[in-house]
Amino acid sequence: MGLRKKARLIIYRFRERGLEVFLTQQSEEWGLPGGDMRLDNPDLISLEPAADREEAVAVEGDWHEIPSLKQMLYEDAGEIKEKLKDLESGTFLTIREALKNRLSPGQVQFLRELLEVVTDRNSVRDI
Which of 17, 38, 106, 117 has its CA 20 to 30 A from that of 55? Predict the structure, then answer.
């Protein structure tokens, strides 16, 4: 049985415009999806906790993978409906566009760290 923790889930992909992240509409603002997740998935990139001690993990994915990524979110039946609605209202934005939104300081920290991690990974692949 895997360890479950409440964390933000950053879904990212690479396109012609560069690195893009998936944000969801949360009330009037955009943000990163999150919930209780199994954190023992080897495909997840664990990011450093934010200053507010919020945690986040990142996974490379695209639209066709969103349904399986939804399964990573685990909460009570009433709450999961709301989380799934959030994912339905989401969209991919470039990192630059995402950072222009009013995200919490912790979410900004996660996106900046993700950019560093995937840049380093891709640099190593190109050697």
Answer: 17
